[in-house]
Design goal:
Blueprint (H helix, E strand, L loop, with lengths): L1 E5 L3 H13 L3 E5 L2 H11 L3 E5 L7 H9 L8 E6 L4 H9 L4 E4 L4 H20 L1
Parallel strand pairs: 1-2, 1-3, 3-4, 4-5
Helix pairs in contact: 2-3
């Protein structure tokens, strides 16, 4: 699966990329939401993990941008942030996020989220 990471913190982005690669996924990396928009348009990844707070374009704006594209229907978008409150979750879901992870992200949680994406895609193809 092709996964886009939008994260301005280098250490966090590298950690997520390493975890995803260990799980067998191909990874695109963006240091902010503006770069992520361009990578999304060029590659149409299967999944996007985006930080909430980034320069230029934040994660909520990126999620809204992705959801304006017709091909985004099958794109899994997960907000990855230190914001753990109900209000933040609601705002992310209203922007079109499918899921939410609180930092620091454990590899087991990442694996579980991606397994659900693969399972959903399998079920959708069978129908």
């Amino acid at each position: 699966m092709l996964v886009l990471i939008a994260e301005d913190d280098v250490a966090t982005r590298m950690t997520l990329a390493k975890q995803l690669k260990q799980l067998g996924h191909r990874v695109l990396e963006a240091e902010d939401g503006e770069v992520a928009k361009h990578l999304y348009d060029q590659h149409h990844p299967d999944a996007v993990f985006t930080d909430w707070m980034m320069p230029e374009v934040d994660g909520v704006e990126l999620c809204r941008y992705i959801r304006t594209h017709s091909q985004s229907k099958g794109t899994y978008v997960c907000m990855v942030t230190v914001k753990g409150g109900d209000w933040s979750r609601r705002e992310g879901f209203e922007a079109g996020a499918n899921d939410y992870l609180v930092k620091p992200v454990r590899q087991e949680d990442l694996e579980q989220k991606l397994r659900a994406v693969v399972d959903l895609r399998t079920v959708t193809r069978i129908r």
